[in-house]
Each structure stands twice: as C-alpha cells, then as structure tokens.
Amino acid sequence: MTIKVQETLTNWNYYLALDSDLMQVSRSVEFSEHNFSTYSIELAHILLAASSEVDVLAKAICAILEPNHRAENINHYKAIITKGIPDLPPQAVYVPRFGLTLHPWSNWRAERNPDWWRSYNDVKHHRDQHFEDASLEHALNSLGALLIVNFHYYRLKAGYDLSPNGKKDTTRQLEPEPQLMRLDDEYYYSHLIV
After folding, report:
1. Cα–Cα distance list, 185 to 28, 51, 65, 94, 160 (Å)
2. What is the pLDDT of residue 102?
3. Residues of the chain whose pLDDT is less than 50?
C-alpha cells in the first residue's frame, strides 16, 4: 500500500493556527473599532506570534527577491520588498464576518514602519510598560500582515506572477482557507454552486 505525501505548508499551517486563536477571541471581544484598544494576554500572544512569523517570512521573501543581500531587520525588508513587490503596501485584508478592512502595510507607503510592528517590539521588550499595546487593533493588523506575506512567500516560491491567474493559483494551494481573514475576491477562484 502506498501513501501519497504532499509537501506540508508549515508556515501556512502556523498562520491557520493563529487565525483560529484570534477567531476564539471574537467570542469574548466584539471585533469593532470601538474595541480596538482592548488588550489582553491572549491578544499579546497573537501579536507576538504573528509578528515574529512576519519577521521569518519577510526575511525569506527578501532571500528570494534579492539572494545576494542580507536582510536582517524591518528596514531591510521594507527596502527589498517594496522594490520587488510594489503592490504590497496598499494591499488590503478583509474580516468579512465583522465588516473590517485592514491595510497592515500601509505605513510603508509613508516611509514608516507599521504601527503594529512598533507595538510588537514594545510588548516584546518592555511588556511591563507597554502591555496596553497588545491591543485588538494591533493583533488584527499583525495577523493581516502575516496573511499577506504568506501569500507572497508561497507565490514567489511557486514561481507565480501577480496576474489574475497567478494570484488565484497561489491561494488555491493555501488550503484550507482561514476562518477569519481573506484577501480581495480577485485572489480566489469562485466556487460554482449548482
């Protein structure tokens, strides 16, 4: 008997676990702008884990885009990624269940690092002084940023471009779909229901 084994998408599975964790938070805290400043240990966990994984994948993306350059921090990532993927900073992430639209990388368009990244570093290094930065808003945006870098990491790894089919072929390999967040509809093949 032969068992066919496909490559495990480890980074995608990690994203899905964090998406599920944040979905559980929604049972206690309504995801609305009124609650964006809410903070907690669970939100700190999600902010730290998602941002750390963004660091890992951003470095991997930089290695694909410019293999001869060492990218060691967010400023290096920004220089390489915005040059190689200029459409990344304005890219939106949607939280359909709660009617939210996030632009987690938009600060890169203004030559600043994302607010959630600053909060991640403050909570990581000075939690006693900055615990309130482990907020719902920053957790949502860090997870949204992670969704975007996952997409681009797997797209680049597979050799797809940013054509409509390249986008859709990338998300097709990212199964199962997340419970909470998604990219714009143009990134997905539509399902025909008969």
Report:
1. 28, 25, 26, 10, 18
2. 98
3. none
Please give the pLDDT value at position 23.
Answer: 97
Sorted by sequence, the CB contacts under 8 Å of residue 51 that are 6+ apart come out as 116, 117, 120, 124, 142, 145, 146
List residues bridging with 93 in a β-sheet. 102
Is residue 5 included in any domain, yes or no?
no
Indicate whether 110 belongs to any domain. Answer: yes
Distance CA 70, CA 77 (A): 9
- Count of the separate structural domains present in the chain: 1
**69: nearest Cα among 87, 77, 134:** 77
Verdict on whether the full-model pTM lies above 0.85 = yes
Q: Are the C-beta atoms of 153 and 11 separated by less than 8 Å? A: yes
Contact 50, 139 (CB under 8 A): yes
